[in-house]
Amino acid sequence: MTKGAAAAILGLACLSANATVFTANLSGAVEAPPNASPGTGTVTVDFDVAAHTLTIDVTFSGLLAGTTAAHIHCCTALPETGTAGVATELPTFTGFPLGVTSGTYSHTFDTSLAATWNPNFITNFGGGTIAGAESAFLAGLGNGQAYLNLHTEFAPGGEIRGFLQPVPEPATFALLALGTPVVLLAARRRGKRRN
């Protein structure tokens, strides 16, 4: 196998790794500052920029007080640390269950609508346009600079949160499974030729 073929296989794997699905585990330990909440949760975000859809699925339980708001913050200065302003609609997601300590939520937003976004996010990160906000949000998600935050009466600044991380598409694993042995074999053959 040539170096070009190996590079092509790895390139295809990397291309399909540009996931539009992101996930996080939510906890008080990830809050800034951390808190001792026994609350936990999970979130899956599917962001399709071409279709202008943002689907958010959240499950949470064990909060110390009733929910007051939920949204996604973006973009922190460094991945997986710090705080950022709210990127999505204010004061909370449409239809999010409020005043509860456990629950589920699923909603699909139209990201071509200004109402989906915090106006400050459109201005400060999107260059004043919704398309810019979509691009900045996708970059923040991909770089680990966006987090879902659940705010409660116990912790108005956020009781549990989690930084969203890309979920590789199944095709990525298949390409890597097929490509890795080929790349290793090529490297082995090249090493034998040098000896």
UniProtKB/TrEMBL annotation:
It comes from the Bacteria. Residues 1-19 form the signal peptide. InterPro entries: CHRD, Ice-binding_C. Keywords: Membrane, Signal, Transmembrane, Transmembrane helix. The chain crosses the membrane at residues 170-187. Residues 18-169 form the CHRD domain. NCBIfam families: PEP_CTERM. This is CHRD domain-containing protein. It comes from Pseudoduganella dura. The lineage of its organism: Bacteria, Pseudomonadati, Pseudomonadota, Betaproteobacteria, Burkholderiales.
